[in-house]
Structure formats: C-alpha cells, structure tokens
Amino acid sequence: MDLVSLPAVTVLSDNVTIVQKDQVKIVRIIHDKAVAGISLHGGHVVSYQPVDQQDLIWMSEKAIFDGKAALRGGIPVCWPWFGRIAAPAHGFARTSEWELVEHRENDQGVIVELALFPSEETHQIWPHMFDARLLVEVGSELKVTLKVINIDDEEWTFSGALHSYLNVGDILQAQTTGMGAEYIDSLQADKVCQGGNTLVLTDTIDRVYTQPEAVIEVADKVLERTLCIENHGHNSAVLWNPWAEGAQGMADMQDDGYKTMICVESTVHAPTIKQGITLQPGESYDLVTVISAK
C-alpha cells in the first residue's frame, strides 16, 4: 500500500503523521527502519515495509476504506471472538473506531498505542466492560500486541486472532514450514487431520493448526526472502487462502489477489465463546505476533 503519497492531515512528530484514505484515518510511520500504517478504523495495520524491502503485509487493491466495512488485507483484529461462533463474524474490534493514545520513537523505531473502549454499539453486541489496547512496534521487525483487560465486575470469556495477511511473490512457489502437523480443516466440517512438515498451496485452505512451532516461516522464492512469524499467547495458528473461486466471490478482493497472499494468524481458537479464555475482573491477556523477513 502506497502510504508515502497520501497527504498528511495532522503532523504529530518527525516520524508520525495522520493521513486519510477515503473515509479512513491512518497513522503513518516513516522511519529510517521502516514505513508502516495503522488504520484507526479497526485498529488495523495496513502496511509494514522495512527499508529496502517490498511490503511484508498484503492489502487488497479493492479494499473498501469507507469507515464501515472491515478492511480486506493487513492485520485485522478479530475480537472478542474469532470466526462465526457469534455475530458479527470475527467480532466488532475490526470494524470499530480506535483511539490513538500514544506514540513514542527513537533510533530503533516507533511504538504506537491504540485503544478501544465499550460503547453503546459494543454493548448491544457483547454486554461486557473491557479495555482493549493495540501496541504496534515498528522497527527492523513488526510486533503487534493485542492486550485485553477485564474492567467489568464479573468474568467474561473471549477468543480472537491477529489475522495477518502476508505478501508473497507467487503463492504457488511459497513454501510454509513450522505450522505443525495436526490441523482442524474448516473445509472438511472441522475434521482433525494430519499433514506434512512443509506446505505448498495448490488450492484453497482454511485450517486451524493446533500445535504450531514457535516460529512459522514462509519461504518466498520470487521475492527472495523468508517471512518469519513468531506468535505468543495463542493456542493455534490459522492458515488461510481463498484461492481463485473465493477471491472471485469477494467484492473487496481482486480476482487474482489470492496469488500474492497467505494468512498466517496468531489465534486463540475456540469452538464456542464459552470455550474461550476466561478473564476475571482486573485480569489481562496479551495476544502477539512478530513479523520479520530474512
């Protein structure tokens, strides 16, 4: 995504400005280490481009920046649930307006903190009090931390994901390792399957890998790099690509968009909301993904 050419609406520092694309405000970071963008709509990372690299993050050319729809691509924040276990699918965080709380910078990079608080809209969907923070650390690697805090007077339960879309040169030549062998296949009615140690896609995939290694790697022959995804606080890694038929069925994805992306997601997976992670009043939880290239 071309962030550099967007005109600044507000200058916050030498490295941080607010820009606007259509109806969406984006926190733009231009630093010696990397250029990055975080949409306030959805608390959504839309770009991370280290110096002398192509973007590590994939965004759809047809993503809708109307301030209402979830953005196609980037790193959607799926919370307080992941998937279609309640409505709306993937929760409300990815379509809510987040607040810019703080930004800090030094020679090593920039840290941006966003916050999402309860509102009338969220209470109609999910009747709990919460404090959600998104900490985005931009430097020689990208670290995204979703911290959720129970500020209610009773417990609540959640699931979620940092739904990272990764940019690759050609999906047919991209090789993924480290996701583990066991997975739940959403395309086979959640059948538990065993796979190999190496994955090269030839068709659509929608899998919850239940025993991922500490680091998942996507070797990209075309762009001559390996993307490294290190996750924390997760119980699984979701891998997804809609392939040709899926892409053609989405108004916000170009028909050939599937050829240059793969999702590798840091996920708290649960079959139902009640089977998610329970936080007592005052407790917090961090879900993290760290993305880099070598």
Descriptive account of the structure:
The longest helix is centred in the middle third of the chain and has 6 residues, at 120-125. 4% of the residues lie in helices and 46% in strands. The protein has a single domain, classed as Beta-galactosidase, Chain A, domain 5, CATH 2.70.98.10. β9 (130-138) and β10 (142-150) form a beta hairpin. The chain has a 9-stranded antiparallel sheet, with no helix packed on it. Strands 6, 12, 13, 15, 16, 18, 21 and 22 form an 8-stranded antiparallel sheet that branches. With 294 residues, the protein is mainly beta.
Q: Please report the distance between the alpha carbons of the first and last residues.
A: 21 Å
How many domains in all? 1
Mean pLDDT: 97
Total number of strands: 24
Number of helices: 2
Largest sheet: 9 strands, antiparallel
Order of helices and strands: EEEEEEEEHEEEEEEEEEEEEEHEEE
Q: Quick one: overall form?
A: globular
Question: What is the CATH topology classification name?
Answer: Beta-galactosidase, Chain A, domain 5
